[in-house]
Amino acid sequence: MSRQSIVLELPDELYDRVREIAAAHQIDIESVLLDSIALMFGELEGKAIEPGNLNTYTDEQLWALVHRHLAYPQDARLRELSLRAQEGALGENEREEMTRLVAQVDRYVLLRSQALLLLKQRGYDVEQRLRLGA
Questions:
Q1: Residue-wise pLDDT tens digits, 9-31
Q2: Structural domain of residue 25, as residue ranges?
Q3: Whole-model pTM?
């Protein structure tokens, strides 16, 4: 896999938190940032996120997964296909596309549920934090 370099300026508080997480897990800061960004977009090291592996994630990574959403273009396309399906106007390719998008949503719901369970087991009041939007 090829890589691209970027320069990223972090606020001191965020950098300190990333540094603490890296130290606590005995990994480098770059790995914490790469894993966290990859988690937001659904993959770690080119592999799909597996529910059984979530127990190895940091609390911050789990919260990031909880608050992740389907990308806007995919969400908009799923809504469009759903409306067209109600009208009975989907072709075979569109039905397949809709099936793939629904499977993505289903997978996310599973991952989110597992992440919330783990956070609750780690002592978080997940109901309260979700109400507050945190």
A1: 999 998 998 898 888 778 888 88
A2: 12-132
A3: 0.64
